[in-house]
Amino acid sequence: MTTISIFNGKERDKRYAILLWHDVETGRDTIARLDETDAATLRDALTAWLDAPRLAARATAEVVASDGDSRLLRSSAGEWGVMYSDDGEHIETVWHLDEREARVSYAEMRDKALCICGAECDADEIDRSGDEPQCPKCVAAAVEAFKATKFTCVPLDGPGYPGGCGWVGTGADITDTSDGEPFMCPACDHLTVEEIRQ
Known about the structure:
This protein is of the alpha+beta class. The protein is 24% helix and 36% strand. The strands form five sheets. It has a four-stranded antiparallel sheet with strand order 4-5-6-7, with helices on one face. The longest helix is centred in the N-terminal third of the chain and has 24 residues, at 36-59. The chain is elongated and about 90 Å long.
């Protein structure tokens, strides 16, 4: 095991760094004095060494999807790349650690949108009214799930609020909604509808 310490120095208005390597196993110390050029060279060499496996993985990345001049890539290091080209000429590859982030970027560069389910659809078909973007298929499934959900009319807390009438039904019975959420009882017209949770 080796420990490295760096000390700042200054001599005749020139900055330099003193590096001290201490080998814990042998007890041996090594000292080096670096000016800014030496330090930059050392930094670049260490950065290249650290980045080499990741860059090699990028160079051999698997093409997961392609559409015209666009590519979605996956490297063996776990990164996801979105490659931009123009008439077959490589322009840029943007790398992401998160798969969904890369897939969203890949979809958007092709005028598509990515649904929460992972499916792509045309950008103008995506529904962004809820917490997550949904394709038409997921919106239809959500509507059907709402229709099958059981609700009841209950009293609301606070003075002046009406008491619940006790109505029980499903989302299919509720015609008056706000932003996709039920809010009015179909039996008594009070804003007291609440989902029945099992």
